[in-house]
Amino acid sequence: MNRRSGIESKRKIIEAAIKVFSECGYRAATIRMIAKEAKISPGGVYIYFKNKEDLYLFLVKEKIRELDELTSPVLKDKSHPYSALKEYMRRVMDFARMHKELIMIHSRELGFSFGIDLKREFIKKEKSMLVDLIKEGIKSGEFVDVDPEEAAKMITCLIRGYVFSFVVTPEDPPKSEECIRMVLRGLSRKKEGGDG
Amino acid sequence: MNRRSGIESKRKIIEAAIKVFSECGYRAATIRMIAKEAKISPGGVYIYFKNKEDLYLFLVKEKIRELDELTSPVLKDKSHPYSALKEYMRRVMDFARMHKELIMIHSRELGFSFGIDLKREFIKKEKSMLVDLIKEGIKSGEFVDVDPEEAAKMITCLIRGYVFSFVVTPEDPPKSEECIRMVLRGLSRKKEGGDG
Amino acid sequence: MNRRSGIESKRKIIEAAIKVFSECGYRAATIRMIAKEAKISPGGVYIYFKNKEDLYLFLVKEKIRELDELTSPVLKDKSHPYSALKEYMRRVMDFARMHKELIMIHSRELGFSFGIDLKREFIKKEKSMLVDLIKEGIKSGEFVDVDPEEAAKMITCLIRGYVFSFVVTPEDPPKSEECIRMVLRGLSRKKEGGDG
Amino acid sequence: MNRRSGIESKRKIIEAAIKVFSECGYRAATIRMIAKEAKISPGGVYIYFKNKEDLYLFLVKEKIRELDELTSPVLKDKSHPYSALKEYMRRVMDFARMHKELIMIHSRELGFSFGIDLKREFIKKEKSMLVDLIKEGIKSGEFVDVDPEEAAKMITCLIRGYVFSFVVTPEDPPKSEECIRMVLRGLSRKKEGGDG
DNA sequence: TATGAATGAGGCTTCATTCAT
DNA sequence: TATGAATGAAGCCTCATTCAT
User: What pTM was estimated for this model as a whole?
Assistant: First the structure.
């Protein structure tokens, strides 16, 4: 019997699950595959997670939390809307690039009944912060006078397209800097956006 | 026994399959579900399609062909790049809105081994036509002097984001006109894009 | 609709069934295959035969009758046991060679509940005639004094082995003349069996 | 849950499979039947065997190996061709009697695409050894001067007929000693075959 | 008499989950 | 905490058989 601390085992399972879910999608991934990848027995998985759904949800939550921790501070800093927005997009895109496969499942498998609330809630929260930031930018005169709601949606839209394109055509990916420039060009009062 | 012509049954199955695949994804969709939706017996599906994969591939091919027929004429018309591009985006987005769910599978389940070639080929072809159109626009002076490759990617990227957002937040969808304006604003030499 | 006389259709089905059953065995053969081979629709088969089993049994009966018609006259001719036996074996082996595949099913698929009685009855009858013939031969002095029962069994045994070997190693088949000679050598009072 | 060691379960499945395949043939046998016979769940069979074909092939291989182990030493002993041949036939027939049903499938279902090579190879090897033995016997003067190839075929032929007859008419089986005597009588230079 | 679309039981197989060890 | 054999529901698919035409 391979004795390990519980935490270590759980961590192994999580990593294995990310890998396997990412490669196969939720349905096609099997507990056996995850267990094997984690060098644990199938039964072992059930010590740490109630079931497959529970395991998947755990991953999603974790990733959402990670992304939140990464972006919230930036979005909350309303002193420099222009740079904040630039930094926000950069971070989201970097994060997406790192976790692209899981994000695809996360998005695609919205069709599933579970996990939706979690994701929708995050999306809503994120959008609301983005709207606030844009409003701030307009107020401060850094941004042109656009509908903040629509602008936020466009930004999100472009970020999603970026992630998506990354998965669909990984051999010819879009450039994140190009995306950021496009957004800033449309929003900014300044001529163009030289990078900091 | 519910007597119908073969063509009628096949059509019913196709429609049912689109619905079920769209709602559940490829793996989670079952033949039984599709059959039930088509008001046919499970065995009946196999009269018209070799197997589940065959049925799925048929749908994808059909949709790709439809979209191709819709967009090719526009992209090939190089006399008015500005309007052509606008019209192209409009059509793709309209099409996407109509078939959003299936498109999501089509994109997400690229990870599957089958159907990839089909899709990749289409994507490549579409992009190449887009690049040509942009080059033409630059030559004619309608567009600013950008890298046509990158511009094409950005356009595709934005379209994808549009589709994606449509699926993720159907209750608060992005506006296609907004997307189109964003692209044209970035490309066009003209001040803004008043719609025709 | 392909109009034919009923008899013609039935004949076509029978021929097709022999072919398909021979090639695939009872279970693996499908009504659809048989119908296709007979250039008729699957439903058409059921006009002439109650079901698959009924069709199979019909074939078996037919073959048994054919073989019976071929061998009975020979076995019943007790005036020349030696030549009769030789001729009997020759005919059975020829028949077997012509219908080897079907015979194999017929034998192997004894395990099935149906058709057994039919076959067993024939086998019994045939054996009893063979025993009579041998007795006659012993009485007439043509054959040595053996146990007629055992001799009959050996003959049947050898014939079966012949058929079997024909199927198992068709590229290197046993020779029927060799088998016949072996039997006659054991039975006959005469030195060897020169062929008639 | 009925806890057993893996080896025990596998053995149970193998025994059940032999029984069920023997009684029904390959096609008609179902995994469910085998599982039930083995007192295991249908899914349990797949722990030990990849699929039905794999299970069947395993049995065939096992039986071939068993028979090979039983007969090879005898056939290889060329010092006493007469007794060796007698012993060989005795062993094959005994073995056949013990495993008659499976052997019937093994032979009949040659028509299947799988397992053929296995069987053909064994048959070829066995025949070649038999030919060598007969040659030896001719050289040593124990056997009369026959064509070794043909003689080997006749022996195989008779053995097969023996097995076959055993299955077809188990209530009135042929006698193995009779078969052996018949062969030896044909081959031997000695008058008759008194048993050793 | 003939068709062939349709049915649905049933076969093979997978896999989330359980549980004796 | 960990194992992995075992379960059984459920999915895909086949095919004997039926029946409206």
Answer: 0.86
pLDDT at residue number B112? 53
Phi, psi for A143 (deg, rounded to 5)? -105, 155
Distance CA D81, CA B73 (A): 87
Summarize the confidence of residues A77-84 as an average pLDDT: 92
By the 8 A CB rule, do C151 and C85 touch?
no
Which residues of C lie inside 8 Å of D (Cβ-Cβ)?
23-25, 27-28, 101, 104-105, 107-112, 120, 123, 150, 153-154, 156-162, 164-165, 167-169, 172, 174-175, 178-179, 182, 185-186
Structural domains of chain C, with CATH? 1-49 (1.10.10.60), 57-187 (1.10.357.10)
Q: Structure tokens of B28?
A: 């989670």
Question: By three-state DSSP, how is residue B50 classified?
Answer: coil
> Does residue B52 contact residue B115 with C-beta atoms inside 8 Å?
no
The pLDDT confidence band at residue A164, using thresholds 50, 70 and 90, is: confident
SS3 readout for chain A: CCCCCHHHHHHHHHHHHHHHHHHHCCCCCCHHHHHHHCCCCHHHHHHHCCCHHHHHHHHHHHHHHHHHHHHHHHHHCCCCHHHHHHHHHHHHHHHHHHCHHHHHHHHHHHHCCCCHHHHHHHHHHHHHHHHHHHHHHHHHCCECCCCHHHHHHHHHHHHHHHHHHHHHCCCCCCCHHHHHHHHHHHHECCCCCCCC
Among B100, B97, B75, B76, which Cα is nearest to B155's? B75
Whose CA is closest to C72, among C91, C59, C53, C54? C91
- CA-nearest of C6, D100, C158 to D108 is D100
Alpha-carbon distances, residue D115 vs A33, B129, B182, C24 (angstroms): 31, 54, 66, 16
d(CA D44, CA D67): 29
